[in-house]
Amino acid sequence: MTALIIEHSCPQCGAPVELEETDRLIHCGFCKVASVIDTSDFFRYVIPHRAENGKSLIYFPYWRFKGMLFSCLAKKIEHRFIDVSHQAFNSPYFPPNIGFRGQTQKIRFLDSDPGAAYVKPNKPFTDVLSLWSNQFSAKLPKPILHQEYIGDTFSMIYAPFYLDSALHDAVLNRAVSQASAEQIEAHLVKEDQPRWSMRFLATLCPGCGWDLKGDRDSLALNCTNCQSVWWVKKGRLQKLKTAHAVSTQSQVIYLPFWRIQADVGTITLNSYADLIRAANLPRVAQPEWDQLPFYFWNPAFKVRPQSYLTIATTVTLNQPALRLRAGQPRGQIQGINLPLNEALESIKLNLANFLKPKERLAEWIPEIDIKPKRFLLIYLPFAVGHHELIHEDLNLAINKNLLGHAKNL
Prior knowledge:
single chain, alpha+beta, 11-stranded mixed β-sheet, 8-stranded mixed β-sheet, 9 helices, globular
């Protein structure tokens, strides 16, 4: 999938920079200053235009979504990657979506355009998400027990139009509706410049003042001086509690996982012994295993839909017993680009993937109520092979290309 390319300027020196929609870190090639981009809700963009002189622009809002859709069926879990857009204001006059417009040209963050009018959104994102769910579920076998979107990116894109003898697309200068200007004007609900702002945070470690490091799409930044990890919460950098497994191997890369302890309601999953019974694992539960706490493990990094659940379930079923050290490890680290809330939302999918017998999923899944209790970000060491990253104790191998291709997810 092609990512949106955003034109912006460095908040430090004003030099032009180009970002992808998943970028949360600006690296300026001119002044070499890095900044974290943050907003309180979701990002808003504007498609560039070339309207005729003297024409007043009308910016029309569209919801855009990109992510993985998982559908839990009676005996299996279906998945697909989707990249869609839809009107954020119900209108028969404007195009139903932006098509490939946002992917074929550079866009920019929403900013002030005092000479333009903005259509006020009246369709909540949740309504549009339900519409897409119904659309993509139409051909799936029924019943659908549960659906979840994981690794999603949603935003609002304002597309420019203008009124002449008809409604025109201001990008192509092409008529899109034959309705009269009076009809369209009476139909629209406009607002002043939409209220929205971004924050740019300095990438300096709040603990020691060292420069924080991270990939462009990282949701957390690493300090190599005090071995701490920081993420943005409530508009500022806060320390993320982390730990890592000790490795004696020379060439490893550390992959981040969210380790989550949660109550799941109708199913007892408090210990390792409970897991053996719930997943019908070919092991005999030992008495001491009733004292070993059970955790869900979910990747804190993006991978393709077909691999995400495999990785999560494999690590969860193995319940790695680790010698942990606080803080981040020294060495090569994979960035965190899948947030904690996504991991929490995927717990029910993880459960459905290993619960046995499958014939009872229709009974269990609708009744499961996930109540998270605590979490920890843990880095697990994977040996670097020619084509794969390997963790022998977990019997898990991850193709290197999966991590590279996930940059566009």
